[in-house]
Design a protein that fits this description.
The chain is of the alpha/beta class. It has 2 domains: 249 residues, Aldehyde Dehydrogenase, Chain A, domain 1, CATH 3.40.605.10; 182 residues, Aldehyde Dehydrogenase, Chain A, domain 2, CATH 3.40.309.10. It has 16 helices and 20 strands. A 7-stranded mixed β-sheet has the order 14-15-16-13-12-17-18, with helices on both faces. It has a 6-stranded mixed β-sheet with strand order 9-8-7-10-11-19, with helices on both faces. It has a 3-stranded antiparallel β-sheet with strand order 5-6-20, with no helix packed on it. Helix 3 packs across helix 4. The longest helix has 23 residues. It is globular, with a radius of gyration of 25 Å. The N and C termini lie far apart (81 Å). The model has no long low-confidence stretch (mean pLDDT 97). The structure holds nicotinamide-adenine-dinucleotide. Nicotinamide-adenine-dinucleotide binds next to helix 7 and helix 8.
Length: 501
């Protein structure tokens, strides 16, 4: 059995309690490997190592270019074994090898590099306007690292989250304790190994594998952690924020979604139909930004659904190791049960099943669900309101633009949205009226390293990626330098307020 180690203080180690847990391939239901099952004492060790590396080590004070050179070396080492990473990522997550090869691994590495390079453009010093009263003074802002950051990841894009959590935190001079999701820790441990090989100072990167309720919760409460960056469900996100509140940690939350995908009557229908499938069934629907609520204008509604039913047949569900497969299983048996429960609820609440709804035939023994589309979905139904995190698309009809906006915003979430139209200005007008962190026009899922990503409302707080994401890993320090020197007589404000003779 392949037993991996986690990274604490520059050493690849087992859990203090000696326990391990297995990682299972959701496609074949086979064990892929075993990893340490960390407990609170491992969290203490990891935070202490990160604390030491931050408080006493060279990392935060190192020239940014030198840090970037080391981090780009990590990326190069990972790229040199990307074939292995593509296979491992696919096996641990049930993401088809086609996608880990064409997208997750190379795009993740490119985003890592882009964020490291962009960190060099973040101004560490910003002058403030000239101030001459009461003191003639030179005022400026320094951007400094926050300190020890905990990165807690979801399982749906394990590699991307490893890259998204590590690059900005490290490039801005912080130290990191990374907790991958317990279903998918393997590629994060490969990242850990590359950090050791590249010679990052001990304790700068720590990767701790284990359960959310133990490792995750302990990180959120730990007084030695300064910031938590969490990606996961809204439910756990609330808990993270609560636990972090006791020590007033900085918290970034990337949470769930129920994103509207609006098709206007003047849309290019061939494009929008494939766009709607891409929006909903990408990653078997396990994407926080997935376009799970398809809002169709009544003028094109019937034709659109006809075309959608044809095109959905082209989604290749099956063995994730086959390069032709475009959709794999969901992550666990429990997740499949949850998805099937939503399918049952949609039927009971009166939605019309357009296609799918069951388990596909002739696939490996894992947790597969057919791509499923329900029409006639109304805002009262659970599948309109709740995040399913599986391949289920809910279709709702609208008549006017105001109705489309009202439906789009009728959600507690606000992560993403899309508008399909040939009228760019009209689509832009609609984009402005939608309360969401990202709006695509005539596209979907395109997240790039220079653009901010994150949610309005209960989809989160703060942003990842771009300058915005880098700045989340900084504290702002105002420095005031008095220009008049130690001239006591001129400091009349001391006397006004305090020292009246
Ligand atoms: P989850 O909330 O169950 O778990 C996320 C992470 O938190 C895991 O590492 C887990 O071990 C850990 N965790 C669990 N309990 C914890 C606790 N009490 N304290 C601290 N950490 C804890 O989410 P998931 O099932 O892994 O992922 C699916 C969810 O993530 C969906 O809701 C999805 O929308 C969301 N998500 C959001 C984004 C985004 O960027 N907005 C991206 C991907 C996934």
């Amino acid at each position: 059995m392949d037993v991996r180690r986690m990274l604490i203080g520059g050493e690849l180690v087992e859990a203090a309690n000696g326990r391990t847990f297995e990682v299972v391939d959701p496609c074949r239901v086979e064990t892929v490997g075993r990893v340490p099952q960390a407990g609170p004492e491992d969290v203490d060790r990891a935070v202490a190592a990160a604390r030491r590396a931050f408080d006493e080590g060279p990392w935060p004070g190192m020239p940014a270019e030198e840090r970037a050179r080391l981090l780009l070396d990590v990326a190069d080492r990972l790229e040199a074994r990307q074939d292995e990473l593509m296979a491992l990522e696919s096996r641990q997550s049930g993401i088809p090898i086609r996608k880990t090869t064409l997208m997750d691994i190379p795009v993740g590495l490119e985003m890592f590099r882009a964020m490291v390079r962009a960190s060099l453009r973040v101004a560490r010093y910003e002058p403030l306007p000239w101030i001459d009263f009461p003191a003639v003074s030179w005022n400026f802002v320094l951007r400094e690292p926050v300190g020890v950051c905990a990165g807690i990841c979801a399982w749906n894009f394990p590699w991307l989250f490893t890259m998204w959590k590590s690059a900005p935190a490290l490039a801005m001079g912080n130290t990191l304790v990374l907790k991958p999701a317990s279903y998918t820790p393997l590629t994060a441990l490969e990242f850990a190994r590359a950090c050791v090989e590249a010679g990052l100072p001990p304790g700068v990167v720590n990767v701790v594998t284990g359960g959310g309720g133990t490792v995750g919760a302990a990180l959120c409460e730990h007084p030695g952690v300064d910031k938590v960056s969490f990606t996961g469900s809204t439910e756990v996100g609330r808990e993270v924020q609560q636990r972090a509140a006791a020590t007033v940690k900085r918290v970034t939350l990337e949470l769930g979604g129920k994103s509207p995908n609006i098709v206007l009557p003047d849309a290019d229908l061939a494009l929008a139909v494939d766009g709607a499938l891409f929006a909903a069934f990408f990653n078997a629907g396990q994407a926080c930004e997935a376009g799970t609520r398809l809002l169709l204008h009544e003028a094109i509604h019937d034709e659109f659904l006809e075309r959608l039913r044809e095109r959905v047949r082209l989604v290749r569900v099956g063995d994730t190791a086959d390069f032709e497969t475009t959709m794999g299983p969901v992550i666990t048996e429990g997740q499949r049960r949850k998805v099937e429960e939503y399918i049952r609820s949609a039927r009971e609440e009166g939605a019309t099943l357009l296609c799918g709804g069951g388990r596909p035939k002739d696939v490996p023994p894992g947790w597969f669900v057919e791509p499923t589309v329900f029409a006639g979905v109304t805002p009262g139904m659970r599948i309109f309101r709740e995040e399913i995190f599986g391949p289920v698309l809910a279709v709702t009809r609208f008549g006017t633009l105001d109705e489309a906006v009202a439906l789009a915003n009728d959600t507690t979430y606000g992560l993403a949205a899309a508008v399909w139209s040939r009228d760019t200005l009209g689509a832009l007008d609609l984009a402005r009226r939608i309360r969401a962190g990202t709006v695509w026009i005539n596209d979907y899922h395109l997240i790039n390293a220079d653009a901010p990503f994150g949610g309005y409302k209960q989809s989160g707080r703060g942003r990842e990626l771009g300058r915005y994401g880098l700045e989340e890993y900084t504290e702002i320090k105002h420095v005031h330098v008095d220009q008049i020197g130690p001239d006591r007589d001129r400091k009349f404000w001391f006397d006004y307020v305090m020292n009246r003779e």
